[in-house]
Write a sequence for this structure.
């Protein structure tokens, strides 16, 4: 069965620091990958997605993620975080067809001004 | 266009009572998911509907939980004989045919007293 691992459960950074949140998945076939974000008190919303093509995908608010097939990874990055990036970030795996999407356990990011 | 809506937004109930939560997905979205999010925790998958296929109920925590969906429209999640540990935010999400991005509703905050 497919699975998604997010090893960083809670990350604390100062403003302007660089961010990298890990996401690894377990599945041998073609995948679609997503990062979702949940700001305090708000809905979960899509940050970025990878379906095919360029493995480096860019999302909203300066976030990007790189799909590395050989490492089964889809890490989220941002060169310089802001206090407003404080949120919980979820990685998700879609194996296509009619299989359900699998979410990771989430990473809480706290950015200190 | 209209997003995913859920009702009620908040529900307070006494232990032992039954509750029914409603989700209206985006029109045309064949996939519908229910998740539970306990305070400070990640997403817990509950159930997945895809078109007219048999639902994936593998995440339902006990036989007190059930869900229905009529065609590709409204879904209801029913919790019978509620317990205090059922207190959480219940999230619904829908996505288009053949997978892709999930669109989340605002959630129903359930408090069992």
């Amino acid at each position: 069965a497919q699975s998604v691992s997010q090893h960083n459960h809670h990350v604390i950074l100062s403003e302007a620091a660089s961010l990298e949140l890990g996401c690894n998945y377990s599945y041998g076939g073609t995948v679609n990958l997503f990062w979702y974000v949940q700001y305090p008190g708000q809905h979960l919303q899509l940050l970025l997605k990878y379906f095919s093509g360029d493995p480096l995908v860019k999302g909203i608010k300066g976030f990007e993620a790189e799909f590395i097939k050989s490492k089964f990874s889809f890490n989220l990055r941002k060169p310089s975080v802001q206090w407003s990036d404080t949120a919980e970030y979820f990685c998700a795996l879609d194996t296509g067809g009619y299989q359900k999407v699998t979410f990771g356990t989430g990473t809480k990011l706290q950015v200190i001004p | 266009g209209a997003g995913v809506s859920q009702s009620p937004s908040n529900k307070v109930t006494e232990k032992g009572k039954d509750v029914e939560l409603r989700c209206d997905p985006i029109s045309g979205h064949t996939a519908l998911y229910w998740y539970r999010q306990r305070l400070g925790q990640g997403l817990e998958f509950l159930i997945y509907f895809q078109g007219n296929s048999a639902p994936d109920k593998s995440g339902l925590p006990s036989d007190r939980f059930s869900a229905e969906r009529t065609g590709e429209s409204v879904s209801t999640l029913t919790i019978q004989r509620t317990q205090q540990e059922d207190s959480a935010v219940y999230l619904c999400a829908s996505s288009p045919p053949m997978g892709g991005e999930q669109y989340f509703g605002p959630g129903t905050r359930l408090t069992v007293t």
Q: What stands out?
A: Strands of chain B lie at 5-7, 10-13, 19-24, 31-37, 44-50, 65-69, 75-79, 88-95, 103-104, 108-112.
